[in-house]
Amino acid sequence: MFPFGEAHELDFGRLLIQRANGGRLLLPVAPCMLRLTQRVVLVDAGLDPGLADRVEGVEWQRPVRDLAAQLEALGLTLDDVGDVVLTHLHDDHGGGVFDRRREAPVFPNARLHVQELALWQGLDRAARGGERFVSPVLLDWLLQTPQAVHHHGDWRLCDELAVTHTGGHTPGHQIALAG
What we know:
It is built from 5 helices and 14 strands. It is an alpha+beta fold. It has a single domain, classed as 4-Layer Sandwich (Metallo-beta-lactamase, Chain A), CATH 3.60.15.10.
């Protein structure tokens, strides 16, 4: 228990990536769910299930329980998620906000918070064929959906959660900070 509420790590499975040198990289995909005083927030939304079909050399090891079941164990549903803070737009962090098969948002009541720089950088790289872990479908959707909130730099979601634009991993990278 945190002073502001609860934090829970979620399991979205693991990515198995074939490296150019013949090695393999196993990456856990583990977004965080925050239950704050007045809202439920996800920090990252997990994997686009279509990533393994779209990118050669990538396999997805599915989690034991899907996201709906994990939230249900916490007494929540997908509809209860009010905000999703996307740290950046690689498919293992932001891909889980949009269900391509249904062409619908995964979190119908959530505002999706993303740095505008992340959107433009992703679109630029996708147009040049240089970014294989950012879905052009997701980028286009985040530019069009009224659920998306585009931020410039640091911002505050509420009294309990601040978000800082850090750059680094990607130019539009941001982190969520309690307090």
